[in-house]
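Entry type: protein chain
Record version: 2
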Amino acid sequence: MTLKSRIRQVLANYHNTLKFPTLTDERGFIKRTTSFFRSRPVWHGRSFLITRSAYIDRSPIVEFHHTTPWPNPDKREVGDILFVSKLKRGNKIVKKKAIIVQSKFTKSHQRSWKNIDTAQFYLTLKWPDLTRVSPKPKKLYKISPSCLTWGTYAFVGPFAVNYALYMTPARIFRACPAVLSQRTFTFNIKKSIGWDTSPSFLMKLIFGFIGEDLLANNAIESFVKDLYKIASLQPDPPGEFEWKPNKEEQKGFGIVEFTLSIPKTV
């Protein structure tokens, strides 16, 4: 069995944990994902995949300006799960990619997700200049991602899909171009949607084919490092942050890191 085959089997086992027991909300998706990948080594000869994760009960909150007709800034959670993948050849990191996921839960028997918050969608689609307002101290970010998969939705539900269904807001926006003029909107996912409806999404991330290139984008690299600090995930040292209760901080936040190591000769 090849390394890829072993990783596919691990991902299949992960998706089975999303089926039983039945998910009841986004928090369950975040917690099960971070719990499964806390330490999940996969070996094949001299090549191996190491995973680690962190979960915190609160969600980092950012403030940003939406488009008209809302001139005042919005405050939203930055996302639900940060996925980071590192590809190492020998001792050198040759690829480092990241994706931040916003989860959306449904109990529906159909592939229909209602009441998607447009301000959150705008953040996940456009990534305008944003200010972290919780935890404090405040900090301004101008991250300007170039990869469409940097901000991605994970649609989950016990009846609608058998696993997390990943889809970029850019694809949703192409299908529903009028959504930015609404407060909330409903999205119906067609069965014919392509590759990101399957566990291959995480395979593509692990092997560095999708996600924002952190080695090329210093601004997002700095943003990601701050999220690591907030989650007290080493080796980045924890920072001094002040958390205050916030109504948006309901679901928690997770980080999952994949490190794929391959010998120089491979």
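Comment: Residues 148 and 168 are 7 Å apart (CA to CA).
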